[in-house]
Amino acid sequence: MAAGIIDGKAVAARVRATLKGEVAAFYAATGIQPGLATVLVGGDPASEVYVASKRKSSVAAGMADLHQHLAEDTSQAEVEELLRALAADPAVSGILLQLPVPAHLDAAALIDLIPFEKDVDGLTTMSVGLLAQNKPGLRPCTPSGVLELLDAYDVPIEGANVVVIGRSELVGRPVAQLLVNRNATVTIAHSRTRNLAEVCRGADIVVAAAGVKGLITADHIKPGATVIDVGIHRGPDGLSGDVDFGAVAEVAGLITPVPGGVGPMTIAMLLSNTLRAAELQYALALR
Ligand code: NAD
What we know:
The protein is 42% helix and 15% strand. The chain is an alpha/beta fold. The strands form 3 sheets. The chain has a 6-stranded parallel sheet. Strands 2, 3, 4 and 5 form a 4-stranded parallel sheet that branches. The site of nicotinamide-adenine-dinucleotide has 24 residues, from helix 10.
């Protein structure tokens, strides 16, 4: 295998350790303990696991766990009322509405009730606009984690040719925008892209976020390129990604494994966003 392995577990652990110190220092200086309000509607088993992990990690970082669990049949008006109360509560630094919400709810309308300074998922229309305009704000967690990994391994971004595969609101679009804001030359490929392999072969960095198992093969990769695999697929042999790891690792210069690459970064960046949110609210209150 030629490629170096990007160790997301180690980078995430470093981010979390640094953050724990920053949370303690912020608390000592301001008397404000950053608090994360995860909001779970219903009992989707996967969502329960994700939320439990976010709560545990936030407590480990020294933050307050302000979790809210609503019944599956909660009405739109009731969820809206809770979100408005959390938005107004000074103890709440960050609000995270766990997705997907039950089908009878309008997720987009709910998300947009989260004020930008508490939007730790970075998914509100306001946060998306701030990212598009390259103005300060909270950025989506997985895309931020991708940038953090590239920086941790000193991968040059400015002027680099990057192909992002996927254009979802959650991953593809924001990761492309973060990279443009760092002066990369970015191509966004998607399900209608022709000659994907040819498009990818021009890239210094490939970010695969298509949600298609093993889509990216050695044929897609320029020798020495950096390959970031955002995809997660559960199979009989455990987790795998959008990249054919064994074959691509023979060609790439650096590559993220699945598991242990981008995955661990998502919660680390959520915690980072929660502290940034607390700092932002503190700064706004001083104005
Ligand atoms: P999505 O289904 O919302 O979007 C997929 C995108 O890929 C679409 O824009 C589509 O146009 C594009 N696409 C689909 N098939 C393609 C093909 N054959 N060629 C080129 N482009 C194609 O998915 P998502 O929410 O963006 O997630 C993408 C993947 O990342 C999934 O596997 C998901 O599980 C994973 N994910 C991982 C994390 C993490 O923490 N590591 C977080 C979020 C999502």
